[in-house]
Prior knowledge:
The chain is mainly α. Helix content is about 65%, strand content about 0%. It folds into two domains: about 10-70, no CATH class; about 75-180.
Amino acid sequence: MRLPLIPPAELTAAQKTLYDDMRKGITANFNAFKVEREDGALMGPWNPWLHEPGIGKAIWDLTLAMTANASLQDNVRQVVILVIGAHFDAAYEIYAHIAVAEREGMTPERLATLVAGLKPTDLSPEESIAFDVAYALSRGGPLPEPLYRLSVATFGQHGTNELIYLVGLYALVSTTLNGFNVPVPERE
């Protein structure tokens, strides 16, 4: 870990405001995995964001907007997030979203296939298209036109926009985690 965890008592005023907002959002949306140390210091991507509260707040606001305004089904979202986490080999991202996907009933076989960077054979049509979009975008270059059209036909324009932004958000989260070598806590 390249940035020390910040105990709540040591936060600056700007960090404390962001910390309070993140704790509220984490409690509401990200409670399937360990996010804080015993003293309340935030782990995962939240710690690097606290170190740079101006940038961290912008990323956190985007994360909240993507969560609060989600129109894609959560199973579709989890497929996308795991495709991106696997592509970047972002250990904390994989840890966190395996926990979320397990809680939602995703099978161990599907999880193992996704985190290996492969396409599971048991995806629904919507999950399959989401996988293909995330996989294609994570490799760089424009999204192929037939895949884009298929996504719009399946999810609508708004859903396709959300899908593309979700790939970008979790690429940013994964890059943050890898750049700062954020460790994975022990599973409970």
